[in-house]
Amino acid sequence: MSRTVALALGSGGARGFAHIGVIQVLEERGFEVCAVAGSSMGALVGGVMAAGRLKDFTDWAVSLKQRDVLRLIDPKWAAAGAMGADRLINHLNEFLTDVEIENLPIPYTAVATDIEARREVWFQKGLLRSAIRASIAIPGVITPVVIDGRLLADGGLLNPVPIEPTAASGAELTVAVSLQAPRASQEPTSPVRAAAAPQWVEEWRGRFRQVFRTRTPKATAPTALPDDLRIGHVLGLSLDAMQDLIARYRMAGLPPDIHITVPVSASGILDFHRAADLVAIGRELTMKALDDAGY
Question: What was the pLDDT predicted at 190?
Fold first, then answer.
């Protein structure tokens, strides 16, 4: 008899292709997904899985080249984001069709953020593709949408790994997949204190800590930015930092049975041409997590 599992699939742009590898390994190990909730890319992969089209979606994703990704971009230079998602959603209609969430074979929740009311929105009814479009609206990158009078953006802004919608599923296990690497064990979680002006005590303390390869940063004149730094990279790093913190706080109150964490270094948020690598990473991390947990 197969074990039932509730899946919480996190946000993180292209790294979300790792969710595919997670699902593949769970199915290969005999688990039955009885509920799925997702934010952003987690909502997309979870929705495609719930619609029974994950294999076709995977075949399409791993075939993407960088030029194919560029063709899916819908520039919106004067709008509320750098790009729309209409071309992408239209292309995904092959997988999402006109199915309504309440008619999916397993309970599904897409999480979006009402950025005016500052609250989560859980889509558990209505058109699957509309719910996903709202959930994937990365601020500054993909334009937000208006549904039922709400201005909606990426679900990861408030709930990067949405475990709560699956809490009543009755699953034997809850598996959460976040797309930000855990903080290094030797790195403190407390805020870093920085001095805006040199003081002899701070200078002495800084030299002392440098001996032990730790130091308190001190504000000095800015240096030149890296030549290859782009706005997408800055947005990605900023969102990763915010979502990692939010996810850790929220999971402390409702911890999953198994937590799979995909490293931030695996890819940038817009590296959609790296699907095959990310699926493989998801598989590897899931196998290790299940082995460690005795499954």
Answer: 42
